[in-house]
Amino acid sequence: MDQDLYYKRTIVKELVPSASLGETRALRIYLPPGYNELLSYPVVYCQDGEDFFNFGRIATTMNRLIYDENVEPAIIVGVDVDKSIRTSEYSPDGERFAAYCRFFAEELIPFVEDHYPVRRESNARILAGDSLGGTVSLHLALDYPSLFTQVISLSGAFLLSTQERLGMESDLSWLQLLMVIGLDEKEVKTERGTFDFVEANRISKQLLTERSCSVIYEEKPGKHVWGFWQQELPWMLKRFL
């Protein structure tokens, strides 16, 4: 395969007006090779959109999966975030968390579905996030089960508020979660303190499994950085697509 094909990409920028957030939010949207508006596509929604494209190299990864591994072409929607308010939007304890979740489910999804030929079944929408992005992705699925049933979590920050949220559920048999955590993530420094992400993910995995969630969970050597997560994206995307 001509390596150059991996790096040829069509990425469209959009601005979504949001009443919930009181602002417009920038998206970057990857259109797969051979994109055709008459077809319909599964769609991957990424928190930290800029990071997924720049550091996660998700567009190159998707091209490679399509060309080399016959993975079904998908549209990827990266939702940008202002790093200075990221915690308040992505953390369940954050001031902007409820507004961000409303924006995502009630404004962003309809916008994308009105403008692009994405499938509208819950099993054709994938949520993906790293760290707190994994957290907000899981909470979106829990709060909007009719919209989202598949979540990719790269070292999700599944701390106490998320564990308590999972404890409120009785049946998660409708939910599919792919989780990866690096074994070097026992002391992750965050805005709100230092946490053992390995232990948090183990507890959350147990809570999910007890509620019949379909979980594929991997622990491997790795730090809380994109260098680790970038390597994990291919198998996770392939699993859902």
Automatic annotation (TrEMBL):
InterPro entries: AB_hydrolase_fold, Esterase-like, Mycobacterial_A85_antigen. This is Alpha/beta hydrolase-fold protein. Keywords: Hydrolase. It holds the Pfam family Esterase. Coiled coil: none annotated. One of its GO terms (molecular function) is hydrolase activity. The lineage of its organism: Bacteria, Bacillati, Bacillota, Bacilli, Bacillales. SUPFAM superfamilies: alpha/beta-Hydrolases (SSF53474).
